[in-house]
């Protein structure tokens, strides 16, 4: 009896380990509203080539589901708004869909989420009232085949579900959606499903450039926005929008629901009124986003909190209506060439040579502090670089090689250059709100050696480790402890079985 208890306990801990130790993930949205897209088989090869492990699709297309069988890529499958009426009215419709569209391909094709409806509050026919009944019927269908714990059911929303998002602590849901949001939140809490949101700082900047700075939208701000109610400091809009949702959930006493970002990104091309839609900005946003997510940085209100994010989108989609930017969110062209290069692991310096008008250096340029910058601006930028910017600033501490001369310009120059080299040596990585300047003369002196891109590349692995935050390190330690304990328990159980067998002989 004791041995059996140990086995059950060890297996339970292993399941906990798998969930706890996974960390935040970055996926990509695979829309197909375009001409001349590669076949799903070729898309599966492209996705694996770029080490993309999580993919969101917007329907249950059979060819796509077949193509991703045995690839290890986890899929989020969508139920379109046009199917909500049928799914909400009759349980048999949900049963049939699961039987014909999902089960034949599962588990060879890994399906982990089903999203029921797409931003229903934004759709002209407003099918909000149909969403929760459809979700309930799909959950019931999953329960019938024992998959309700392996495949989670939720629905995606736009930020329009909030009536207020700033300051974050004042985040509140739009009361006009209460009739369907309350039962949905109860469903999510009861079934431990995430609240799925589509977030686009790009639109906030495009539509209100006088109130939102470009650097703040791109994760590049060296200054902070303070929430007057909580005192929390925000260096990017993404975190502020996420926290607005958390505060909105807490205001309704839903404290256990986690948030998942099912769409975010930045367009690489736009109309004359969309000057921020460039390859450089798209690459900067998505690069910073990936690093922010995989480091499990969390947000000011939820530090260290895991946050799964899906980048929109895999391909440019030329059939989409609207402004020019709507057709240019892709990471790839239909011919499978990159619109700009992106490191999906977030672990190395990103190659910016193919990013349109990007200007990646070959290791012969450096970034230093501008002599025209004010002391307050330099101090803010230095604090940011050594904090959120993940720069190792130990060399400018007292008694260290770059402490002397002990002045703000010298210390900021060292930190600016380190951030610049670690982030691809691009123009945008030396901006610091206009306080950084690129130079072609090595600023190194005495024993104070300024980094170069070549040096960063040689030590990428160690730098990545140094950039990991405390929560990631703590999680790794706990994971290692649990894994060791479970392994020892299982070995003990197997040995006990052997001893029992020998004794019985």
UniProtKB/TrEMBL annotation:
Location in the cell: Cell membrane
Membrane topology: Lipid-anchor; GPI-anchor
Organism encoding this protein: Theobroma cacao (Cacao)
Signal peptide boundaries: 1-23
Enzyme Commission number(s) from the entry: 3.2.1.39
Family annotation (InterPro entries): GH (IPR017853), Glyco_hydro_17 (IPR000490), Glyco_hydro_17_plant (IPR044965), X8 (IPR012946)
EC category: hydrolase
Segments forming domain X8: 365-450
Family: Belongs to the glycosyl hydrolase 17 family.
Matching PANTHER family: GLUCAN ENDO-1,3-BETA-GLUCOSIDASE BG1-RELATED-RELATED
Keyword terms, alphabetized: Disulfide bond, Glycoprotein, Glycosidase, GPI-anchor, Hydrolase, Lipoprotein, Membrane, Plant defense, Signal, Transmembrane, Transmembrane helix
A Gene Ontology term for the protein's cellular component: side of membrane
Protein name in the entry: glucan endo-1,3-beta-D-glucosidase
Tree of life domain: Eukaryota
Any one GO molecular-function label of the UniProt entry: glucan endo-1,3-beta-D-glucosidase activity
GO biological process entries: carbohydrate metabolic process; defense response
Membrane spanning stretches: 480-502
Reaction catalysed by this enzyme: Hydrolysis of (1->3)-beta-D-glucosidic linkages in (1->3)-beta-D-glucans
A matching Pfam family: Glyco_hydro_17
């Amino acid at each position: 009896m004791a041995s059996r208890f140990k086995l059950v306990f060890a297996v339970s801990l292993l399941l906990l380990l798998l969930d706890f130790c996974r960390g935040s993930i970055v996926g990509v949205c695979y829309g197909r509203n375009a001409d001349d897209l590669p076949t799903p088989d070729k898309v599966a090869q492209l996705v694996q080539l770029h080490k993309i492990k999580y993919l969101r699709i917007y329907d249950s297309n059979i060819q796509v589901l077949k193509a991703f069988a045995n690839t290890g890529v986890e899929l989020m499958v969508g139920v379109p708004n046009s199917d909500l009426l049928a799914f909400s009215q009759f349980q048999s419709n949900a049963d049939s869909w699961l039987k014909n569209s999902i089960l034949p391909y599962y588990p060879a094709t890994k399906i982990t989420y089903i999203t029921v409806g797409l931003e229903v509050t934004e759709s002209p026919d407003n099918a909000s009232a149909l969403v929760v009944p459809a979700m309930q019927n799909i959950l019931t269908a999953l329960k019938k085949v024992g998959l309700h714990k392996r495949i989670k059911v939720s629905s995606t929303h736009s930020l329009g579900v909030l009536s207020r998002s700033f300051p974050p602590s004042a985040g509140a849901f739009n009361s006009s959606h209460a009739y369907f949001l309350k039962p949905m939140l109860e469903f999510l809490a009861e079934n431990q499903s995430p609240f799925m949101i589509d977030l686009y700082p790009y639109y906030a900047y495009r539509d209100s450039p006088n109130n939102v700075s470009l650097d703040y939208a791109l994760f590049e701000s060296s200054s902070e926005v303070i929430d007057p109610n909580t005192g929390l400091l925000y260096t990017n809009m993404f975190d502020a929008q996420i926290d607005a949702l958390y505060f909105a959930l807490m205001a309704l006493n839903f404290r256990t629901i986690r948030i998942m970002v099912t769409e975010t990104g930045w367009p690489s091309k736009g109309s004359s009124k969309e000057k921020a839609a460039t390859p450089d900005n798209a690459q900067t946003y998505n690069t910073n986003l990936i690093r922010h997510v995989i480091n499990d940085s969390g947000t000011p209100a939820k530090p260290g909190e895991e946050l799964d994010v899906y980048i929109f989108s895999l391909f440019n989609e030329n059939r989409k209506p609207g402004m020019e930017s709507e057709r240019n969110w892709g990471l790839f062209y239909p011919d499978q060439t990159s619109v700009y290069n992106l490191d999906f692991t977030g672990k190395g310096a990103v190659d910016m040579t193919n990013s349109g008008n990007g200007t990646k250096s070959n290791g012969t340029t450096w970034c230093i502090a501008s002599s025209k910058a004010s002391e307050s601006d330099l101090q803010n930028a230095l604090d940011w670089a050594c904090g959120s910017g993940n720069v190792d600033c130990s060399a400018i501490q007292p008694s260290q090689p770059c402490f002397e001369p002990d002045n703000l310009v010298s210390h900021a120059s060292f930190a600016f250059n380190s951030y610049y080299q670690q982030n691809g040596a691009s123009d945008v990585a030396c901006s610091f709100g206009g306080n950084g300047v690129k130079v072609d003369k090595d600023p190194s002196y005495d024993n104070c050696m300024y980094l170069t891109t070549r040096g960063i590349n040689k030590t990428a692995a160690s730098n990545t480790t140094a950039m990991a935050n405390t929560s990631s390190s703590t999680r790794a330690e706990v994971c290692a402890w649990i894994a060791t304990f479970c392994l020892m328990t299982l070995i003990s159980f197997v040995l006990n079985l052997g001893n029992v067998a020998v004794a019985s002989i």
